[in-house]
């Protein structure tokens, strides 16, 4: 009977030790991933600090209708040359940014533009973020698309 009790105690200790080792491994792996993402984010912030993306801001604001609707054909025709020039200059600015930081650079340009012009109406904000999301594709660079979480208050 005491042998069975001793064996049960040894098995219980072994199971607890195994569970602790598994939990520790999971925690270490998760922490390593978080640290890597945090380091990348800090690197991007350092790279973008003090930089202005005025051409990108101009490009993003040119497609905005004051009514929050789709772009007007007449407006598009009259500003077509300005848009393509702003797009070309914006693409050049983004090429000078590390590929892993480009979406953050675009997000930075949107924030700068919002600070200058004030907050958008919901429809206007959707237009700006749609253009921002597709900007890398329009510039023919990677990543092809940026994902943004848009929160309306």
Task: Describe this structure as you would to a colleague.
This protein has 153 residues and is an all-alpha fold. The chain has helices spanning 2-48, 54-62, 73-95, 102-117, 122-138. The termini are far apart. The longest helix has 47 residues, at 2-48. The protein is elongated and about 90 Å long. Mean pLDDT is 75; it is low at 23-33 and 66-78. Belongs to the 2S seed storage albumins family. Keywords: Seed storage protein, Signal, Storage protein.
Rough shape? elongated
Radius of gyration: 25 Å
Q: Tally the helices.
A: 5
Mean pLDDT score? 75
List the helices and strands and how they pair.
Elements: H1 2-48, H2 54-62, H3 73-95, H4 102-117, H5 122-138
Helix pairs in contact: 2-3, 2-4, 4-5
Family: Belongs to the 2S seed storage albumins family.
GO molecular function: nutrient reservoir activity
Pfam family, one: Tryp_alpha_amyl
């Amino acid at each position: 009977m005491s042998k069975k009790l001793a064996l049960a105690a040894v098995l219980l200790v072994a199971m607890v030790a195994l569970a602790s080792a598994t939990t520790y491994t999971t925690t270490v792996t998760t922490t390593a991933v978080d640290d890597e993402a945090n380091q990348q984010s800090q690197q991007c912030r350092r790279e973008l600090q003090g930089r202005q993306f005025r051409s990108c801001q101009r490009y993003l604001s040119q497609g905005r209708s004051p009514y929050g609707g789709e772009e007007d054909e007449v407006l598009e025709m009259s500003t077509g040359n300005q848009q393509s020039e702003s797009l070309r200059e914006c693409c050049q600015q983004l090429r000078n940014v590390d590929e892993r930081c480009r979406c953050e650079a675009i997000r930075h340009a949107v924030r700068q533009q919002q600070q200058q012009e004030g907050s958008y109406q919901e429809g206007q904000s959707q237009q700006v973020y749609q253009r921002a999301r597709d900007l890398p594709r329009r510039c023919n660079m990677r990543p092809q698309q940026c994902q943004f979480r848009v929160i309306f208050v």
